[in-house]
Design brief:
two-stranded antiparallel sheet; 16 helices; 479 residues; alpha/beta; eleven-stranded mixed β-sheet
């Protein structure tokens, strides 16, 4: 029979183990702070503030391909294009002129937006050398290599290959900054950016890193994706995404890049860094054996939304707004609205509909970075107390009765008042052609940190034209 002292020792050990178990469980559900971000989107958007002005002013960004691409487009081809993708400052990032010229524009944008995101977050990038900072990058394709591989000297092919490699994209950022945390490139097609964010949140909660960069980019170096989309029957004839609209007739292809900087809330509270939003929960799942390899399903989308809410420890009534995927295809939008209705509308008080909109109605389908753009839009909407209008939504899709579904399409901008019982909250969806779905639940930062702003200036790059074939002297990087 155990002595009294042995029983006391046993109880002390049990109490200590219980304490450690509680700490582990708390860590796996700890909120994560979005410190800041950097981005490039159509319409001259070069910062999160630019993005907010674009949606607040209800602008759209459809245009023909820029002449600098050198395409011979068919009449009427339009989309959401970035300008100046031939411009870059390789020396700023420790690259030679020729190496910079052979670097895929997507990876150029990852470098630029990551630096901007770090500095806007009040961080000094060189001071992070050797730190446990992770990098998760959403990328799917590069047509840059195929465009140039027969047009550059054979001696340049290896540099062109590494400069276009998706698998090296995350590692390039870690190499440039000297980070020692995980570096992973994620490819789930259009949901890649939001899946990368989910993986970064998990890595932070699991203690694999102390800081995380989440990036994604898409640049159309050739018109091939337009042909693919047209053959799939999903290309908008005029380049517009009419998200959740009765006039939805396909997605308008677009380009972009975005980077977010993430940190655990417990670490953030001990410092003085800014906060753009708090990630309360996230989830990723798969369609599985659905109606087709690339076909979405309401069931899988509803389930990923419910899983993200459970991860956040919240109910549907706690979330005011869903920033939808909203590609503007009749099938995809109807599936998504039914999922929002089942996961959110059905579990809210009658007459208190969840708000629904999509950034794609402004800038088009930017593909991999689309989910991160949605996070920036939702975070800034919470900050400014305004739910922006979703364009082309005057006549909502007819397949779902939104009133009975308890879903309100943002056909006009609406004030977003403070909640009496808690902070403003929004959710962001991203669904991939791969069948991989992602959903993230955000909330306003705590009042004591919401007013902080990053204090470090963003540098002005000495951007000049750097393109694989452009001048007699391949070393000068000019034209």
């Amino acid at each position: 029979m155990a002595s009294e002292e042995e029983l006391r020792a046993y109880l002390r050990r049990a109490a200590a183990e219980l304490h450690r178990t509680r700490q582990r469980l708390a860590a796996h559900s700890e909120p994560v702070v979005v410190l800041g971000g950097g981005c490039r989107f159509p319409g001259g958007v070069a910062s999160p503030e630019d993005l907010w002005e674009l949606v607040r002013e209800e602008r759209e960004t459809v245009s023909p391909p820029p002449a600098e691409r050198g395409w011979d487009p068919e009449p009427g081809l339009a989309g959401g294009f970035l300008t100046g993708i031939t411009d870059f400052d390789p020396a700023f990032f420790g690259l030679g002129a020729r190496e910079g010229a052979l670097l895929d524009p997507q990876q150029r944008l990852l470098l630029e937006t990551s630096w901007e995101a770090l500095t806007r977050s009040g961080l000094d990038p060189p001071a992070l050398h050797g730190s446990r900072t992770a990098v998760f990058v959403g990328l799917t394709y590069s047509d840059f290599y195929d465009q140039w591989r027969t047009r550059v000297p054979e001696a340049d092919l290896n540099a062109l290959a590494t400069g276009s490699s998706m698998s090296l994209a995350a590692g390039r950022l870690s190499y440039t900054y000297g980070f020692r945390g995980p570096a992973v490139t994620v490819d789930t097609a259009c949901s890649s950016g939001l899946v990368a964010l989910h993986q970064a949140v998990s890595a932070l909660r699991n203690g694999e890193c102390d800081l995380a960069l989440v990036s994604a980019a898409a640049v159309l170096s050739s018109p091939d994706m337009f042909g693919f989309s047209r053959r799939q029957g999903v290309l908008s004839p005029d380049g517009r995404c009419r998200s959740f609209s009765a006039g939805a007739d396909g997605w308008g292809l677009a380009e972009g890049a975005a980077t977010l900087v993430l940190q655990r809330l417990s670490d953030h509270e001990r410092g003085a860094l800014p906060a753009l939003a708090v990630v309360r929960g996230s989830a990723v799942n798969q369609v599985g054996a659905g109606p087709g390899l690339t076909a979405p399903t309401t069931v899988s989308q509803r389930q990923v939304m419910e899983a993200a809410l459970a991860s956040a420890g919240l109910t549907a009534a706690d979330v005011d707004l869903v920033e939808g995927h909203g590609t503007g295809t009749a099938l995809g939008d109807a599936v998504e609205v039914r999922a929002v209705a089942a996961a959110y509308g059905a579990h809210r008080p009658p007459g208190s509909p969840v708000l629904l909109g999509s950034l794609k109605s402004n800038i088009g389908h930017t593909q991999m970075p689309g989910g991160l753009g949605g996070v920036l839009k939702a975070a800034l909407a919470m900050r400014h107390g305004l739910a922006p209008r979703s364009l082309h939504a005057e006549a909502p899709l007819a397949e779902v009765d939104l009133t009975s579904a308890n879903v309100r399409l943002l056909d006009t901008a609406r004030p977003w008042p403070e909640r009496e019982e808690g902070p403003r909250r929004a959710a962001v969806s991203s669904f991939g052609l791969s069948g991989t779905n992602a959903h993230v639940v955000l909330e306003q930062p705590p009042p004591e940190v919401a007013g902080r702003r990053g204090g470090r200036p963003v540098p002005r790059y000495r951007r000049a034209r750097h393109w694989p074939v452009q001048s007699p002297n391949p070393q000068d990087g000019t034209s």
